[in-house]
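#onboarding

Welcome to the new folks! Below is a worked example of what a typical request in this channel looks like: someone posts a single protein sequence, and someone else replies with the predicted structure as tokens. Don't worry about understanding the tokens yet, we'll cover that in week two.

Example request:
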Amino acid sequence: MDFGFTEEQLMIQDVARRIAQEKIAPSAEHHDRTGEFPLENIRTLGENGLMGIEVPAEYGGAGMDPISYVLAMVEIAAGDAAHSTIVSVNNSLFCNGILKFGTEAQKQLYVRAIAEGREIGAFALTEPQSGSDATAMRCKAVKQADGTFVINGKKSWITSGPVAKYIVLFAMTDPDKGARGITAFMIDTAKPGFHRGKTEPKLGIRASATCEIEFENYVAAAEDVLGEEGHGFKIAMGVLDAGRIGIASQAIGIGRAAYEATLSYVRERKAFGQPIGAFQMTQAKIADMKCKLDAALLLTLRAAWQKGQTEKNGGRFSNEAAIAKLTASEAAMWIAHQAVQIHGGMGYSKEMPLERYFRDAKITEIYEGTSEIQRLVIARNETGLR
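Example response:
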């Protein structure tokens, strides 16, 4: 693994940092308070290649590598976590799966519009009764004599659901086969039979619109199947491996923003005649924050590097991705917690962004596989036991 970044990687990091500092961070409080979807900023990110970082240029993307994705995601998340959530879904969960398993027609139709930022994509796996147990889905796609599928059912907690034009949907086509009876479909939300449900009133990442979606006799054509029939669960798990690198990067960005705000504060805030950063207890917290942040970044870069290697040589990067997500998400939550504590009353006030970092950090321990699921993945890979 090479720890030196290429000119291209540093370039996209710089572009992401500039947009985050000039456009995203200044509008973050407004979008968090109102829950308004940041469409204008997302369009800007798309115009600069950040909605399709690893998407080849022939499909409208930047044609970069997984390391570039991590570097850009950290910068965007440091500006605002909600923006990075939208970027992560478009890059990791939507474009990634179609590039790996889609037909040429599907790549041209669905990936290009999303990578260029002209449309928004979403990923629909979770249902009201099934979170970590993804195989317990009730959304069904019944195959007809003419080869089409009639889809009925409900999905929940769909990031970008209220604004998505296209969705990667997972539905049960053969309940008797369990996980092997799940198929992935490309959904056009403009077609009859698709309905958006209530928007979730979330604790954090409030500008990344989230809602339930429902299918009522929605007809999917045979060419709308992503990959092969019955391979949906395999596709979902592979896509989530990539998604976990995105969420780890997001967590690092949140943690870094909280850490940098704290560094500035402890140098300026005085108590008992000296900066509070001179107190040993505060210094211990700063040291631990820095160690956790650096460890999370290095593990996430390792996972991204491994992802790049598997794309060249085959293999998996599930363990590395799980380790990165678990470490980074728990580091972000801990750093944000300590940052609020060090800031005292001001950390609890909405006059400063610390309380937003605290709220935003929590979701990184939950979505795209809870911390408990990450520990299961890691332990099973290490022991070989199921």
